[in-house]
Design brief:
With about 375 residues, this protein is α+β, with helices and mostly antiparallel strands. Helix 1 crosses helix 3 and helix 3 runs antiparallel to helix 4. The radius of gyration is 26 Å and the shape is flat.
Length: about 375
């Protein structure tokens, strides 16, 4: 087999840029410049493409040598047999390399992020929606634990029935953004609530937002752009309500973005958490704006993160989970909810969206 010309061209371009950067960062005057850290990061990001380009060069050479032997009718029979065996290996390695190249070519700086913030909010469905939000929270925590990622709750708003009206938590670990980015959207659940006496199936929904966490250098927030208000924390269970003004509400005046944090007893800690969430939301807004600009010039938009659209249905009576964006249906909802099979859904989404994005990249 032969790799598509578009993939070969992209690998060649990135390998060329990698060699240019290798030369640049070895210069003493560059090593002491303010651009050096950014050049070093770009160099590291291009390394996988460079390695693939070198493998492709070796495989192409072997392919040419084998074909020369096989096309020569006067060649020694034993040598032809060896060429046939090697050519079979070359074909397998080329097929594997193409799949690796597809993943590498759609990777950008954001895919390498190791910190995200996940926001889950109960939607339509009242108490049942809040319980489903809690199920999603536990599902993602199990998935994160299995990956060895570290989780930190930032804001939790519980309901009287043990669900979550809203829960915001941070996740840190290698590959967390690349794997979790397509979870943003409306998640719909169909099941019989515990309070339902007649066995009727109810439908409710929760929204999930997965945001790449901002680094301080990426989003600069000026003090004069903030209005910070303090207030008493509130929540279910009168005994647990703070009697001091520890809750913090921060309003980013230019964008009218509001963040409230009351999970900690310390006003200082709540303010720090609120600023962290604010930075991340502002970065996400900028990402969405830039993505819309890029997508406008393409024939198809991929991974827009449109949270107004239903992306997935969890049907408990049928033990079925369906991702509507890619037409995937699995009858193993119990395993997904347990955290052991969520990876199958995420991998399928990632492969689908990466393939679509690669079409956009190579048709520009």
């Amino acid at each position: 087999m032969e790799l598509t010309p578009a993939i070969v061209n992209k690998l060649t371009e990135r390998a060329t840029r990698y060699r240019e950067l290798t030369e640049m960062i070895s210069q003493p005057e560059v090593a002491t410049s303010k651009e050096y850290p950014e050049l070093l990061r770009e160099h590291g990001q291009l390394e996988p493409a460079n390695e693939l380009a070198k493998r492709l060069e070796d495989l192409t050479a072997r392919d040419s040598e084998n074909k020369a032997v096989l096309d020569d009718p006067e060649e020694d029979a034993e040598l032809r047999e060896l060429a046939e065996l090697d050519q079979a290996e070359v074909e397998e390695e080329l097929a594997a390399l193409e799949e690796e190249a597809k993943a590498v070519l759609v990777t950008d700086k954001e895919d390498l992020r190791a910190k995200i913030i996940v926001e889950i909010r109960a939607g339509t469905g009242g108490d049942e929606a809040s319980l489903f939000s809690a199920d999603l929270y536990r599902l993602y925590k199990k998935f994160a634990d299995a990956k060895g990622w570290r989780c930190e709750d930032l804001e939790v708003s519980q309901t009287d029935v043990g669900g979550f009206k809203e829960v915001v938590f941070a996740v840190q670990g290698e590959g967390c953004w690349a794997l979790m980015q397509f979870e943003s959207g409306v998640h719909r659940v169909q099941r019989v609530p515990q309070t339902e006496t007649q066995g009727r199936i109810h439908t409710s929904a929760s929204t999930v937002a997965v945001l790449a966490e901002a680094e301080e250098a990426e989003i600069q927030i000026r003090d004069e752009d903030l209005r910070i208000d303090t207030m008493r924390a509130g929540g279910p269970g009168g005994q647990s309500v703070n009697k001091t003004s520890s809750a913090v509400r921060i309003t980013h005046l230019p964008t009218d973005t509001v963040v409230i944090c009351q999970d900690e007893k310390s006003q200082h800690k709540n303010k720090a958490k609120a600023l962290r969430i604010l930075q991340t939301r502002l970065l996400d807004a900028e990402r969405q704006r830039l993505h819309a600009e890029r997508a406008a010039s393409r024939k198809s938009q991929v991974g827009t993160g449109d949270r107004s659209a239903r992306i997935r249905t969890y049907n408990y009576p049928q033990n079925r989970i369906t991702d509507h964006r890619i037409g995937l249906t699995l009858y193993k909802l119990d395993e997904v909810i347990a955290g052991t099979a969520l990876g199958e859904v995420i991998d399928a989404c990632t492969a689908h969206f990466n393939a679509e994005l690669l079409k956009g990249e190579t048709s520009d």
